[in-house]
Write a structure and sequence with these properties.
The complex is a heterodimer of chains A (272) and B (272). Chain A is α/β, with parallel strands linked by helices. Chain A is built from eleven helices and eleven strands. In chain A, helix 3 (93-104) packs parallel to helix 5. The longest helix of chain A is centred in the middle third of the chain and has 18 residues, at 168-185. The radius of gyration of chain A is 22 Å and the shape is globular. Chain B is an all-alpha fold. Chain B has one domain (15-264). Helix content of chain B is 88%, strand content 0%. The chains are: A alpha/beta (272), B mainly alpha (272). The interface between A and B is medium-sized, with 20 and 14 residues.
Chain lengths: 272, 272
């Protein structure tokens, strides 16, 4: 990505001049607090959103030059794990993983069956093949979604907040799977997350995003000792730093005394 | 001063009205483009007809109970009301004609259409809306599968095919209900009931026109249902609002279209 800028509308710019490069075969983390533009960045890489300025090349192809067909062709080489799995709720686990194979290949059903079981075995859920998504726990659903995302052995995997809402065991399992699948399938992976420990444990390189800008980058061990104010606050979870704890508000004392801009709210709740 | 305020209020009221009107027109245009897009991307739904048959099971077969029971009761009530009026003029043997024509020409397509809108239309909207809210549609796009072709078109064609079949079942069940009440309960002559019906109901003038009506209602209801689902904001509120709009808009569309179609189809005979 070279000097990529994006905004949902002119008044709300989300990304400003983002420049990043991801080495083939590596696992790269994109970290930052909620709402800083990480997921938007991922969606631009997936060709979902069109950057307002700058250029993005994915697997050697310039996204600006690709039409809708070109984007769909490129996506066959990508896989994406959504934040909550996004499994098809009207299909079994087996059919979810087989979905892309049936849609994009002419493979016979028995071969698809073998491939699906191999993918499910890789995430430890071969035994859950007949279950419906509603019968799975959050961690299991995420692993099935991972098996589905790698069904056609994508060259580039995109992970959107893969650790959100998982118990420590599932979290560790997913983190290990991301690394193992990347190395064994020869993929390149981009992990968007705000979970410092899990992310640092598996990535080779990390970019920090704040307010739509890349504010720091480096290897995880370098980032742990970084003196950069934002990285320090983020990595060590400090309340004070460049990211303010308080949402902007008028004077606190004036509000409590009844003369401030928010005092009407206090009146409402007191009366209610 | 007061005059200025009145002019200002009038202007803002007009602006609001104009904005609302243009928003409605814009949305109608968007729905029309969506309709064309669905038609152009119907190849998968028609080529892999099993996808459409699966949706016919959910939209059509699951609606059968309500259609059959309603048809039975509507036919029974028609026979009671019809007999009450006809026997005053000494033509109670024409009960079969009255029941059959009312059902085949009017009540079959219209009431079945209204029931289909509230049973299947709302379910289609809610399902597509929830698929959007839980990122299933996004996941499909990410897998380079067009959700319009894979999700929307099969549901659309399933609705269009199911609707005339359900209307026919409604009419058949209604005629049976009319027979139960008219012949078995009241004691109208069975031979007159069936033979007059057979002699008076025209295949082209009555039955075919009824079928055309039900196909048009099927297109309208399913188009509205898939559009509202696909256009629903991905929130609980958004999906519930879209489901309500589907039922309200489809019901009004059926009644308005029924008037237009009846005017086109049946006025020729009365003018002679």
């Amino acid at each position: 990505m070279d000097r990529v800028s994006f905004g949902y509308d002119a008044a709300r710019p989300v990304l400003h001049g983002v420049k990043l490069r991801i080495e083939p075969g590596s696992v790269v983390g994109i970290m930052g607090q909620s709402g800083c533009g990480k997921t938007t960045l991922l969606r631009i890489i997936a060709g979902w959103l069109k950057a307002g300025a700058g250029s993005t090349r994915v697997l050697g192809e310039d996204l600006a030059g690709l039409g809708a067909d070109g984007i769909f062709r490129l996506r066959r080489k990508l896989g994406m794990l959504f934040q909550f799995g996004a499994l098809f709720t009207d299909m079994t686990v087996f059919d979810n993983v087989a979905f892309q194979m049936r849609e994009h290949t002419d493979l016979p059903e028995d071969l698809i069956g073998d491939l699906v079981l191999m993918k499910l075995e890789a995430v430890g859920l071969r035994g859950a093949a007949r279950l419906m998504p509603s019968e799975l726990s959050g961690g299991m659903a995420r692993r099935v979604a991972l098996a589905r995302a790698v069904a056609l052995d994508p060259q580039l995997m995109l992970y959107d907040e893969p650790f959100t809402g998982l118990d420590p065991i599932s979290l560790g399992v997913i983190a290990r799977l991301i690394r193992t699948l990347n190395d064994s399938l020869g993929q390149t992976s981009i992990v968007v997350s705000h979970d410092v420990e899990e992310c640092f444990g598996i990535v080779d390189y990390v970019y920090f995003v704040s307010a739509g800008r890349i504010v720091a980058e480096g290897k995880p061990q370098e980032m742990r000792c970084s003196g950069e104010a934002f990285v320090k606050q983020f990595v060590h979870g400090e309340p004070d730093g460049p990211i303010p704890f308080h949402y902007p508000a008028p004077g606190y004392q004036a509000d409590l005394d009844g003369g401030g801009a928010l005092s009407s709210l206090l009146g409402v709740s007191a009366n209610g | 001063m007061a005059e200025q305020e009145t002019v200002g209020a009038l202007r803002s009221g007009l602006e609001k009205l104009g904005r609302g009107f243009t928003a409605k027109i814009w949305r109608l245009g968007f729905a029309a483009r969506f309709f064309v897009y669905v038609l152009l991307h119907s190849g998968t739904a028609l080529r892999r007809f099993s996808l459409t048959i699966r949706e016919m099971y959910f939209a059509g077969v699951h609606s059968m109970i309500i259609i059959l029971v309603s048809g039975l009761f509507v036919g029974m009530v028609l026979a009671l009301q019809g007999y009450d009026t006809l026997q005053r003029y000494g033509s109670s043997e024409a009960l079969g004609i009255l029941v059959a024509l009312s059902l085949v020409r009017e009540l079959g397509p219209v009431v079945a259409g209204l029931l289909f809108a509230s049973r299947a239309g709302s379910a289609i909207t809610a399902e597509i809306g929830l698929m959007k809210a839980t990122e299933q549609i996004a996941a499909m796009e990410m897998m380079a599968v067009d959700p319009i072709a894979r999700v929307v078109a099969p549901r659309f064609w399933a609705g269009v095919i199911s609707m005339p079949l359900l209307a026919a079942l409604f009419s058949a069940m209604g005629i049976f209900g009319g027979y139960l009440v008219g012949v078995q309960l009241i004691g109208v002559d069975e031979g007159a009931f069936w033979s007059q019906m057979q002699a008076s109901v025209d295949v082209r003038e009555d039955i075919l026109n009824g079928v055309i009506k039900s196909v048009v209602f099927g297109v309208a209801v399913t188009w509205i249902a898939v559009f509202e689902g696909y256009d629903a904001p991905p929130t609980a509120e958004g999906v519930s609002g879209a489901t309500t709009r589907t039922v309200v808009t489809s019901s009004l569309a059926i009644l308005a279209l029924d008037f237009v179609l009846t005017a086109l189809m049946f006025t020729g005979g009365t003018a002679k």
